[in-house]
Amino acid sequence: MVEVIFPDDTGRLDVRFFPPPADLEPYLTLIYHLRVSLPEGETIEDYLQPEWANLRFYCGVSAKRQGQVERSGPTRLGEARLHVTGPRARALHFETGSAEVWGVGLMPLGWARYIGASASDYVDFAGDGEVEPAFSGILPLCDVLCSPDGDEDEQLAALIGFFRDHPGKVADEARIRAIHAAMVDPYLVHIEDFADAAKMHKRTLERLCRKHFGFSPRFLLRRQRMTRCLMAFMLAKEKNWRQTIDLHYHDQSHFFREFQTFMGMSPSEYAALPHPILGAFAAERQRVWGAPVREAGASPGEQLSEA
Question: Membrane spanning segments where (predicted)?
Fold first, then answer.
């Protein structure tokens, strides 16, 4: 567990990651429990990086989230218990007060099994999972995970049991696995090579990527490249972009343009921001897995893509 004490003892943040059991690894990126303790009326804020879909079960929180940074005005989720974010291509600004949260990250295969809707319809979605029909199958977990009196071990066991016993079937499972295994190769640059590695025609790759991953194959590779840079930066002792830029960027101006596309700000602007939650998550990921992010289809030494 990573514990963060804020300056002048004004609050604390505790986050603990639980590696998914082996049989759930293809479906879940991670399971985590987060507790934020702040003085009444105080909040902290951060930016979610591009990531796969996440389910966050809140207990006793009044949260506020903004959509992509270029949008104006926050989206208030108020007392919603289940906050859902779809596959993300853009940064998401969020702000929260004291909160207790169970979080579950869904791999593309997990999205296909547990949600079933086309991932492309939920790209950059952030909303109340209890009012969105696509997430109705997840709602039984709310009563278990959102209880303020719940025992952490019992809640974890119930969460694992729910996903393990879920009856969902995935017709495209083998091909989703093949795409995912190919996609995390850091040397993959060209779509033709992507299709060859996944052992399918480019048109099939395009259709399945949009349906189950949310993005075109070309955009997926761009997104992978950026997330590798972001996580390397978050874990670097010296926050220096030059040391963490992926070698597949042609030059710094190419990297800066891509960063603006995905994060809605310049690298220097992002570096200057505090990252109380993302910093703690990166440290806990490294403690648990020894690498920034775990990916299905990658060996422990290769787990450097995004969750």
Answer: none
Which residues are paired to 34 by β-bridges?
15, 101
Q: Which residues contact 82 (CB under 8 A, 6 or more apart)?
A: 55, 56, 57, 58, 128, 129, 130, 135, 138, 139, 141, 142, 146
* Distance from the first to the final alpha carbon of the chain: 19
| Residues with Cβ within 8 Å of residue 131, at least 6 apart in sequence | none
Q: CB 199: neighbour CB atoms within 10 A?
A: 13
Cβ pair 45, 11 in contact under 8 A: no
**224: amino acid identity, one letter:** Q
Q: Which CATH class is domain 173-302?
A: mainly alpha
Give me the CATH code for the 2-165 domain, please. 2.60.120.10
Domain ranges of the chain: 2-165, 173-302
**Locus of tokens 């939650």:** 277
pLDDT digit string (tens) for 19-67?
999 999 999 999 999 999 888 888 889 998 999 999 999 986 545 544 4
**In the structure, how many helices (H) and strands (E) does the chain have?**
10, 11
pLDDT digits (tens, 9 = 90+) for 255-293: 999 999 999 999 999 989 988 888 888 888 778 777 545
CA distance 205 to 199: 9
